[in-house]
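for the recovery benchmark. tokens below, seq after
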């Protein structure tokens, strides 16, 4: 495998979506068994990298992208490796359950529609935003539930599952535009009108702040009314997010004075900070429950 192919798979970038997996695991109180390991490997080492690679192949970015400050030129090998990872992920999912495999297949098709020039959901600001938020949040949460619990699709209608799944999407609805805030020039040159371009730089920050506030309020309500964490867990959740809030507000202040501060480096810092906070909180909830 070429080094450029490996880099474009952006396997470490999967940590930014790990909190959805951990949230579902914590809600279920799932045991640490072979099935949990298999689901983790399927999503984070195969399906997410496959999506990253497929997206990179059709984007052919010259500027910074999520997880890569200086992306190398792509080759046809990347396309085939992305498809191979997708196939391997679907096969691995079959070892868990046929329902999980079907959902993995659907996720893969949507991720391809997001990037492929024949459909390219990415070029539609609202549709692309909704697709990314729903499938990386709500749908992934439900995939993990189906895989680890063995529930039927009908059983997923339970509000105790629907509520946290919707919260996963609400959080991504806010964070997703921030991942595009430094790519306006490159996306515009390629003909993609992303949600961040539609909102503008300052608008992206305000939009993220709004959804961050709404989703955090939703999480607090969920913890107090529906989970075993009660109000103590809600307080701890807020404490974990304080560093994220401080960084975000300081960065927004800088961007208002100088829009060029909305750059790759600061975006990645916010992503790492927020994902680390969420991952640690949900991991602690699962381990200590």
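predicted aa per position
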């Amino acid at each position: 495998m070429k080094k450029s192919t490996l880099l474009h798979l952006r396997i470490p970038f999967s940590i930014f979506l790990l909190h959805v997996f951990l949230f579902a695991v914590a809600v279920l109180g799932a045991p640490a068994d072979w099935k949990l390991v298999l689901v983790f490997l399927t999503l984070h080492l195969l399906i997410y990298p496959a999506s990253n690679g497929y997206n990179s192949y059709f984007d052919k970015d010259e500027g910074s992208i999520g997880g890569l400050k200086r992306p190398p030129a792509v080759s046809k090998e990347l396309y085939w490796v992305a498809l191979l990872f997708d196939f391997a992920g679907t096969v691995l999912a079959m070892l868990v359950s046929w329902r999980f495999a079907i959902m993995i297949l659907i996720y893969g098709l949507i991720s391809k529609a997001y990037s492929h020039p024949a459909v390219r959901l990415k070029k539609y600001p609202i549709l692309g935003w909704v697709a990314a938020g729903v499938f990386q949040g709500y749908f992934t949460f439900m995939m993990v539930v189906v895989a680890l619990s063995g529930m039927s699709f009908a059983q997923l209608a339970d509000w105790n599952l629907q509520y946290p799944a919707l919260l996963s999407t609400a959080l991504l609805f806010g964070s997703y535009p921030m991942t595009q805030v430094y790519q306006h020039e490159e996306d515009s040159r390629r003909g993609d009108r992303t949600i961040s371009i539609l909102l503008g730089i300052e608008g992206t920050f305000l939009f993220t702040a709004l959804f961050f506030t709404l989703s955090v309020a939703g999480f607090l309500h969920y913890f107090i009314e529906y989970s075993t964490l009660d109000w103590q867990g809600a307080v701890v959740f807020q404490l974990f997010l304080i560093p994220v809030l401080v960084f975000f507000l300081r960065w927004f202040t800088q961007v208002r004075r100088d829009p060029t501060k909305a750059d790759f480096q600061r975006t990645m810092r916010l992503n790492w900070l927020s994902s680390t906070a969420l991952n640690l909180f949900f991991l602690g909830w699962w381990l200590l429950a």
